[in-house]
């Protein structure tokens, strides 16, 4: 079979890209252990108030400059709604919803996710500079959606 020179080059190029992509993906999956999230935590969405840790929402210090924020989302509020942490704090947000799907987003941070009833969502964010962040719900959740907000104050 006689192939055109350019056809040969493109065929080799195409196969090479495929093989390199598969090698990179294989290396990440098997050598580096990268995989989609696999250990989802669930909760009975009707029993949020009686289920630890969501029976006591709040800000907890868990180590030297490490904090956990146990937070419930409900139409149309965050609890707690005023969070204060020191500068440099590594804060893990542990969140669930009591009713419908809400979202959580603090612009210019890593915090941006859906919070789904029946599931526990965890996100860790380090706050390097003292600042005030507005935390907003970014999933339409009802007539009061636009009023659903909280603040994070990072103190010096
Ligand atoms: Cu909660 Cu929109």
From TrEMBL:
rRNA processing as UniProt keyword: no
Kindly give the InterPro entries that the UniProt entry links to this protein.
Ba3_CcO_II_C, CcO_II-like_C, Copper_CuA, Cupredoxin, NosZ/Cyto_c_oxidase_sub2
Gene Ontology CC annotations of this record: cell envelope; membrane
Its catalytic activity? Answer: 4 Fe(II)-[cytochrome c] + O2 + 8 H(+)(in) = 4 Fe(III)-[cytochrome c] + 2 H2O + 4 H(+)(out)
A Pfam family hit: COX2
According to its UniProt record, where is this protein mainly located?
Answer: other
Record keywords, A-Z = Copper, Metal-binding
Q: Where is the Cytochrome oxidase subunit II copper A binding domain?
A: 62-156
- Spell out the SUPFAM superfamilies in the cross-references: Cupredoxins (SSF49503)
Subcellular location as annotated: Cell envelope
Which CDD domains does its entry note?
ba3_CcO_II_C (cd13913)
Mention one GO molecular function. cytochrome-c oxidase activity
Query: What is the role of the protein in this entry?
Result: Subunits I and II form the functional core of the enzyme complex. Electrons originating in cytochrome c are transferred via heme a and Cu(A) to the binuclear center formed by heme a3 and Cu(B).
Name of protein: Cytochrome aa3 subunit 2
């Amino acid at each position: 079979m006689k192939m055109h020179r350019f056809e040969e080059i493109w065929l080799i190029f195409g196969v090479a890209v495929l093989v390199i992509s598969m090698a990179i993906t294989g290396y990440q999956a098997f050598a580096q252990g990268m995989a989609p999230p696999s250990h989802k935590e669930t909760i009975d969405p009707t029993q949020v108030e009686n289920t630890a840790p969501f029976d006591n929402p709040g800000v907890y210090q868990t180590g030297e400059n490490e904090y956990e924020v146990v937070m419930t989302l409900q139409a149309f509020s965050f609890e707690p709604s005023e969070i204060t942490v020191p500068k440099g704090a590594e804060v893990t947000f542990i969140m669930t919803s009591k009713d419908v799907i809400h979202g959580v987003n603090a612009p210019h941070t890593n915090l941006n996710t859906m919070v789904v009833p029946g599931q526990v969502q965890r996100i860790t964010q380090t706050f390097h500079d003292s600042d005030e962040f507005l935390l907003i719900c970014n999933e339409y959740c009802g007539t009061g959606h636009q009023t659903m907000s909280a603040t994070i104050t990072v103190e010096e």
